[in-house]
Structure formats: C-alpha cells, structure tokens
Amino acid sequence: MFRKHKKQIVGCDIGSSAIKLVELKPLKNGEFQLVHAATAELSPEAIVDGAIMDSSLVVEALSHLISENNIKNSNFGTSLSGHSVIIKRIQLPSMTEAELAESIQWEAEQYVPFDINDVNLDYVVLDASGGDAMDVLLVAVKKDRIADYTSVIVQAGKQPVLVDVDVFALQNAFEINYGIPADTVALVNVGASVMNINVLHNGSSIFWRDVAAGGNQYTEAIQRELNLAREDAVRLKMGERVGEHTVQSVLGILNSVSEDLAAELQKTIDFFVATSSVDRLDKLVLAGGGAGVLNLDEVLKERFQVPVEVMNPFRNIRYSEAEFDPEWINRHAPSMSVAVGLAVRAVGD
C-alpha cells in the first residue's frame, strides 16, 4: 500500500503592504513545482504595525487574488510576526513528552509577558540528549491576532489550517532552496514595517528577533524629500522612473535610509553575538520586498564585512515559463519568500 500524499497548503503571506499567495505541488524527487504565485498591494491603512485595521480591505484584496488566479485549494496557511509573537529557547528539567505537555503552560507563564490564557502555545524539544536538562523552543502568539488573520481567510472563502511564524517560514524557504547551512547565516526579511531576523548556526535556528523598521522608511523619506505622492515614491524606490526623477536621483535618500536600517540590524546582531556562544556571522541573506532596494546589499556588506545575498525562494522550484513570466518571478521573488516557506507545508504537519 502506498501512503497518500498529504494535501499541500496555499501559502498566504498577509503583509502590511501586500498579500502574497504561493501554491506548490510536490514532485516525486522531493522537489516542488509552482502552481500559483500572485501578489496584490494593500492600501497603507489596511494593516498598521501588524494589526488589521480594516479587514474589509484585506478580505477584498485576498478574494480578488483567489478568483483572479482560480485557486481551488481550500487549505490556506498564514504566518505572523511582531509584538504579538513571543519566541523563546528555554531550558527545562528532563521529562517525558506526557509530562512536558502537562507542565508546559505553567512553565511558559514565566517567559510570556501576556496573560497565558490570551495566547496560543506551541513548543518543540530541541535537545533531549539524556542529561538532567533539555532545551525547548517555545512559541506563544496572542489569540486575538491569530483570530484577526484567520478570519480574513475564512471571509475570503478558504480554510485556515496552519498559522506559522514569519521567521520559521523564511527558514523553510531558505532551506528548500539553499540546503541546510553548516556555518552561521542571518536571514533578514525586510518587510514594509518589520524586519524579521533568524540566525541559523550549524543547521539550527538559534536566534530570532523582529525589528520595527522596514521598506516604508524609504517610501516616507522619498515622499518627504521630493514632495511626491506615496504611489510615486514606491515606484521610485523600486527603480522606476517618475517624471524627471530616476532611481539614481534618489540614491542618496535610499542610502541614508539603508544606513539607518543597517544600524538597527547591527544592534540586533551585536546583541546576538554578546549573548550566544557564536562570535561571528558568516553570511547575510536578504528577503522581503525591501531586499530589492538599490544598494541595500552593498551597504550591509560594507558594514558587516560578510557576503550578502538576496534570497531567491524559487531557485529550486520548477515552473513553466509559458505559465509564469520569468521577469515577473525575478522581480517579485524576494517578497514571496515567506509565502513559499508556508507553501512547502502540508495539512496536518
């Protein structure tokens, strides 16, 4: 008897500036084929600081994406980040799985800065090598934030079967495309309003942080300096010409904001190095819509003195050029990283 494949989910990354959808089909050799990839912009007032302020705008954009791309799969997964998400690596006395399941809520109360009844908890044992203690990865997410995002999916006519965390979806996308790194790599997802940072060391995720900084800062700086409408500032930021303004004419503004983002990232990496046994970073990998800002990779390379690469989450994913325009894929690839990381998951994972 052959075991039936689990059903894949549609990765639905609901960001503060856009919704990204990705659906993948597993192939026999462990690779994936692209079935759907689509994105729709959201107006700035729809989601602010990760909180859905106008759900009707989000539902409308998501529903339009689903119908426009004829997405039949009803199983959707999404992910969250920001203040409502707590990730901690904790050490507990060695115990059985049953004992851990019974005591985790009480243990978690010491580490979660919210009422424990207001969060959904999940955990995984990282190291239970048989000593007196074991390492456990604990994740807590506020129930009301989960409800806001899953409600949008339900209202768009789909079934939310999975809620992940952005940094772990990012890691999934990286590993299926680049393999599991043997050195120390910082994955940095530059979203519109938040940078998600996940440091991998010898194949394990060992440090996570969300920083309230992102691509919106470029847009706002261009608007302020050139007195442009938001839409025009966004187009300029991503390299398009707007009237007499070219991306070269705003390079100074972009570089100034990139230096600010680099300084924020430096604080986080310095804290990581100071509080862990790892004393250096070997590589930086950028993802998210902000990863495509001209010269950001060079600014980071100069500051951190390590190789900097922009992630291509479709690098190992097969797709038909008759169905997907390679130019579109290349342009949108970094911003689709979290959606790809969700789409490699299956129902019941």
Which key phrases capture this entry?
Dna Ligase, domain 1; 10 helices; 16 strands
Topology:
Elements: E1 10-14, E2 18-26, E3 32-41, E4 47-48, E5 51-52, H1 55-68, E6 75-80, E7 85-93, H2 97-108, E8 119-127, E9 133-142, H3 143-155, E10 159-165, H4 166-178, E11 184-190, E12 195-201, E13 204-211, H5 216-226, H6 230-237, H7 251-275, E14 283-287, H8 296-304, E15 308-310, E16 317-318, H9 326-332, H10 337-343
Helix pairs in contact: 1-3, 4-10, 5-6, 5-7, 7-8
Would you write up a description of this structure?
- This protein has a domain at 85-140: Dna Ligase, domain 1 (2-Layer Sandwich).
- It contains ten helices and 16 strands.
- It has helices at 55-68, 97-108, 143-155, 166-178, 216-226, 230-237, 251-275, 296-304, 326-332, 337-343, and strands at 10-14, 18-26, 32-41, 47-48, 51-52, 75-80, 85-93, 119-127, 133-142, 159-165, 184-190, 195-201, 204-211, 283-287, 308-310, 317-318.
Summarize the structure.
The chain has helices at residues 55-68, 97-108, 143-155, 166-178, 216-226, 230-237, 251-275, 296-304, 326-332, 337-343, and strands at residues 10-14, 18-26, 32-41, 47-48, 51-52, 75-80, 85-93, 119-127, 133-142, 159-165, 184-190, 195-201, 204-211, 283-287, 308-310, 317-318.
User: How would you spell out the order of helices and strands?
Assistant: EEEEEHEEHEEHEHEEEHHHEHEEHH
Distance between the termini: 21 Å
> Would you tell me the overall average pLDDT?
93
Q: Based on the structure given, which CATH architecture of the domain at 85-140 is correct? A: 2-Layer Sandwich
Low-confidence stretches: none
Per the principal axes of the C-alpha atoms, what is the gross shape?
Answer: globular
Supply the helix-strand structural class.
Answer: alpha/beta
How many beta strands in the DSSP annotation? 16
Q: Specify the CATH class of the domain at 85-140.
A: Alpha Beta
